[in-house]
Amino acid sequence: MTEFLFQLSFLAAAPFWALMILAPSWSRTRRIAESPLIALPSLAVCLTLLLPLLGDFWSVVTRPTLSGLTELVGTPEALAALWGQIIAWDLLVGRWIYLDSRERGLHPLLMAPVLVLAILLSPIAFPIYLALRIGQKSRAAAR
Predict the structure, then answer these.
(1) 3-state DSSP helix/strand/coil % of the chain, to nearest 5
(2) Cβ atoms of residues 53 and 69 within 8 Å
(3) pLDDT tens per residue across span 17-58
(4) Structural domains of the chain, count
């Protein structure tokens, strides 16, 4: 069951990523992405895994130590719950990047690789996108 929920956490987010990457100009994509509720399906999977372990998580997040976190994520259930949280967070970061890039008029072909990177490693995609914003702002000011 844990393996199924682990896979489900990403599958629940995948349709939203597909819309933002493959159909960025479709009016419904923007309407769907405007809602932060798109993260709820992945968070629901996370909570399904997290709630039975809430006591274990609580002690680690209220008194964090590296050894405590290492011990906690040594279980498949805790690691899968954490993965669901990461998936939801990456989706929220990607959602912001998508919406902001649409407002700024950045071309979807430029944004597609950034959004794919956000799926994989949002801590790298986010500063790359911020650099693109700065570059875009500088070009606009130079005109």
Answers:
(1) 90, 0, 10
(2) no
(3) 999 999 999 999 999 999 999 999 999 999 999 999 999 999
(4) 1
